[in-house]
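Blackboard transcription, Thursday session:
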Amino acid sequence: MTDRLLEVRNLKKYFPVRSGVLQRISGYVKAVDGVSFSVRKGETLGLVGESGCGKSTTGRAILRLIPATAGEVLFEGRDLLALHGEPLRTARRSFQMVFQDPFASLDPRMTVSQIVGEPLSAHGMTVSERERNDRVAVMLEEVGLDLSCLHRYAFEFSGGQRQRIGIARALILNPSLVVADEPVSALDVSIQAQVINLLADLRERLSLTYLFVAHDLSVVKHISDRVAVMYLGKIVEIASKNDLFSDPLHPYTQALLSAAPVPIPGAKKQRTILRGDVPSPLNPPSGCNFHPRCPRAMPQCAERVPEPRERRAGHTVACHLYD
Amino acid sequence: MGRMLRAFYGRKIALLGLFVIVLLVLSAVFAPLLVTFDPIEMNPAEKLASPNGKHWMGTDNFGRDIFSRVVYGARTSLVGSAGVVLFSLVLGVLIGVSSGYFKRVEPYLMRLIDVLMAFPSLLMALVLVSILGRGMVNVIIAVGITYLTRTTRIVYGLTLKLREEPYIEAAVSSGVKQRWIILRHILPNMMSPIIVQATFTFAFSLLDMASLDFLGLGIPPSVPSWGNMLSEGRMYLTRAPWLLLFPGACIVLTVLSFNLAGDVLRDQLDPHFRRDIEGV
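(Written on the board underneath:)
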């Protein structure tokens, strides 16, 4: 299929755990354990899951910010995991990242024009200082910052403004794919909507494709076209936004959605309360990762790992209930 | 810069330190204009004269003017300490950043530093000077190696911390070249602790070089230096204490001044301290 911008196949990221005096590898944390999905050109795929489920690690491994253990990441038909050194560096201009922490992700010793202009210089895309400043100025306007910001330091700005600077830095190279790693979770609620709307706006204007990592369901529902739900290093369900929110198939997705607050005071709703904690990814359960907490677990769930299958059109779920 | 001066102004004793440093640097630079006698000219007729109108700090056992020798000694000491700072900083940053940023070279470089660190500093300086011979450059290298190990350790630790910063990850993901990441992100962000380390290196290396001079293993005795003056004057401690008093006082004052100034720099360059002081 040609309209697939990004295709991730069986991506794995295992972190070795070392112990003892000799620092021998005693096990692996399977942060991402065989994740597959694809993102079409122009769409936004939301990647949700609770803390520690591996969603940020997935985003970082795709962008080659951490080395993946196994799998394939096809971006415009090229396997990113096979790229190294200079080819990888030059390829980076087509895929950029918006980071979670707007405070730590901007160099405190640099001015806004240096931060936003740096990717341009890195890829030799501007000839003169003036040309660079012009492009930075245009980009700042795109993200809703005014030009008086150019020569100020990042620490002089509020969280929301800083995140706009981070977005400007990510978009100045005119990338086709943007991985947004919880871009609003560090912001005040009042600012979150502004930044989300800015991202949605820019997607239309600059025809961007987003992989949107978040734990906040309402944020994901607002911006995504399709949503993938992760649990303990695996994707349990992928569907279009409407299908997923109106008709979740996987018991984990059902529990997750029922836990989201409803903005109607006093509204009665059926809640599925999950028992216990998320198991350690160091020693995941046998069979389906979710079976110890699943309200509808069956004997076979402890034995066989459920394969993700397309149960309805465009609705893939990994669960034995639908076998 | 203005804020820095205000901070010094708020701490009078540090301001005094800064004043002494400026005075020392000026006298080192303009030594030939300041002195009243040739610092190595001997005058046996006036040997061991106590401080008087002609010889403000008296004369030594060869009749040389102590004031002139102290002024020229400032030159020797400041050049020596500056040399040690430069040597330890340049090599320390080079080794520390390479080890911290490129994991492959770390085992070799840092183990070498660990080995150097295991020797008592003065002992190592003695051995090195014995091998290399006396002379300013050799003394700088001998003393510098001790401070090199400390600077390297600090820089290595800072690099390890900085390379995990999200803004470094952001630069990597923007496709910034490694050498630019080091030059434009890592180095500028470790400037403050390095500057502070430099001021303390300056103070303590001055003391170390004076010790080497005193032991007769530093600058050749023909060159006036505070350490050499102490070494030559110690025989006359009871008969002519001014031989020791003036160069000794200069060493104490200089080291103290650099330490005081270093303290203010540390407080000012560390944003956490700064907030506490300004009460923001």
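Lecturer's comment: Residues 5 and 77 of chain A are 8 Å apart (CA to CA).
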